[in-house]
Amino acid sequence: MDILDLRYLAVTASAMSLTRAAEMLGLNASTISRRITRVEDELGVTLFERGRSGLRLTEAGRMMMIHVQRSLDDIEALIRAGRNNGHGLTGKVRLGVRLPPIGELLRSLLGAWRLAASDVELVVCEMNDHELQAAIAERRLDVAFVPRHALWPRAASMPAYREALVAALPSLHPLSASPAVTWDLLRGEVVLTQEWEGSHTALEFFASFLGSGIRFSAHPASKQTVLGLVAAGYGVTLATASQGTVGVPGVTYVPIAEQNAWVMVDLVWAADREEPVVGRFVAFIRDEARSRGLG
């Protein structure tokens, strides 16, 4: 007995006529009859009673057809699942982020992906630079949004979006009432930054704008903690415009009137990943980046 036998049984039981079943299947009635007889011989039961008015299921046949239809439904579901998975229509994408998706750019990207791939599960993990690199290498993450200055060597990446930088100042700071600040105005401040053992990417990124001789104060802590220190008067820091949309008591965000006051964020993935759904996500972000003039 094979899948074709099950299909022939189901169509014949629906048509209750070998002639009509043959027309529906595009076969000879004798072919269907032989296949049904073979199944009956294999099972040792009579499935159909033949009469002048056509066919009629026996009691054994009615019981058999319950299982036949279930089997055919399961096979169809298996084929559909395989097809969807093969085209990246279902599955899971494990996404790592360095910056939380609270700003318009990343939020809108993820919102567009949700609409385009409603049957794909998205799991977001927020990590620091070291953790993102390790998670991609160890296959614990599929893709990650990483600030370009934090990219590691030989990372498979492409531009995704960019964000403006703002100055985060204590609310009582003299510059907090300014419509905008410049790098020159910030160079005399203590600049708070995040830093982990062996990773100085944030400090180096800030230094690329502010130059040498800056009084940096580095902390192995989250951005929220650094902003808390800003509120307490320990110094100032740089933040993305999206981070500036989240109010922190005692912190004022001021625009930076410099043409280079922005950060590029890239999408990173393991080059040898073969999951279709991951490839679909990468292609989606690539197309979105191109539409914004970044590709």
Contiguous helical run count? 10
Given as residue ranges, the uncertain stretches (5+ residues, pLDDT < 50) are: none
Mean pLDDT: 87
CATH topology-level name of the largest domain: D-Maltodextrin-Binding Protein, domain 2
For CATH, the homologous superfamily of the largest domain is named as Periplasmic binding protein-like II
Number of beta strands: 11
Domain tally:
3
**Which CATH class of the largest domain?**
Alpha Beta
Derived structural class: alpha/beta
Organism: Aliidongia dinghuensis
Keywords: DNA-binding, Transcription, Transcription regulation
Domain HTH lysR-type: 1-58
Family: Belongs to the LysR transcriptional regulatory family.
Descriptive account of the structure:
The protein is an alpha/beta fold and 295 residues long. The chain folds into three domains: 3-86, Arc Repressor Mutant, subunit A, CATH 1.10.10; 91-161 and 263-291, 3-Layer(aba) Sandwich (D-Maltodextrin-Binding Protein, domain 2); 163-262, Periplasmic binding protein-like II (D-Maltodextrin-Binding Protein, domain 2), CATH 3.40.190.10. Helices cover 42% and strands 23% of the residues. It is built from ten helices and eleven strands. It has helices at residues 3-15, 18-25, 29-43, 59-86, 104-116, 129-137, 183-186, 201-210, 223-231, 276-291, and strands spanning 48-51, 54-57, 91-97, 120-126, 143-147, 156-170, 190-194, 215-219, 237-240, 251-255, 262-269. Strands 3, 4, 5, 6, 9, 10 and 11 form a seven-stranded mixed β-sheet that branches. Helix 1 packs across helix 2 (18-25) and helix 1 (3-15) packs across helix 4 (59-86). It is rod-shaped.
